[in-house]
Write a structure and sequence with these properties.
Radius of gyration: 16 Å
CATH topology of the largest domain: Rossmann fold
Oligomer: single chain
Bound molecules: 5-O-phosphono-beta-D-ribofuranosylamine
Largest sheet: 7 strands, mixed
Structural class: alpha/beta
């Protein structure tokens, strides 16, 4: 559990690589009164992430680090996070793996959303693998980030039914809709709200 001090909202940084639909849902939620956080900063490793447009739309600072020199970029990011007084990191479709030492610096304060019912289907191409294995259910998971990929403590999950006519794309779309609802809920949960 993360403890809130007073009524002040804590500052979050959202890390993205792609479309940023989870980022959008987090920003929209953050504007609600009951949200314990504001999105102070957007970080991306990909200059072409569509999600970066939300920085302009919502007036949020953005920074791009390509992670070509991972150690150096992580050092720079940590400096910025400190400067911006960031207390929560939300990974939302961020395709780079953060180092052990980076995670240690933000212990218990980095969350991730994954499009499967973890511990099943860690890694990429989850929907395709779910369909190949003829699973009846799938879903999404919000979890704390630990040094092992998609393995940190689970905060919340949402289960949905796989349909007979599903394709990875169709299934992915339905899971994504649930992701947008689950991420804010999971954040409320860690703040005990
Ligand atoms: C989501 O399915 C998320 O679970 C996964 O990557 C996708 C990102 O989508 N880690 P978006 O960029 O938030 O639209």
């Amino acid at each position: 559990m993360v403890i809130l001090i007073g009524n002040k909202k804590i500052k979050a940084a959202v890390f993205i690589s792609g479309a940023g639909t989870n980022l959008e849902s987090l920003i929209k939620f953050s504007k609600k009164k009951r949200s314990p956080f504001i999105v102070q900063l957007i970080i991306s490793n990909n200059l072409r992430s569509k999600g970066l447009r939300f920085a302009k739309i919502f007036g949020i600072k953005k920074r791009i680090f390509k992670f070509k020199k991972k150690k150096l970029d992580e050092k720079k990011i940590l400096k910025i996070l400190k400067f911006e007084k960031i207390n929560l990191i939300c990974l939302a479709g961020f395709m780079k793996i953060l180092s052990k030492s980076f995670i240690k610096n933000f212990k218990g304060k980095i969350l991730n959303i994954h499009p499967s019912l973890l511990p099943k289907y860690k890694g990429l191409n989850t929907h395709k693998r779910v369909l190949l294995n003829k699973e009846k259910y799938t879903g999404c998971t919000v979890h704390f980030v630990s040094p092992n990929l998609d393995s940190g403590k689970i905060i919340m999950q949402k289960k949905i039914k796989v349909k007979k006519k599903d394709t990875p794309e169709k299934l992915g779309k339905r899971v994504l809709i649930e992701e947008h609802k689950l991420y804010p809920k999971a954040i409320l949960k860690i703040f005990n709200l």
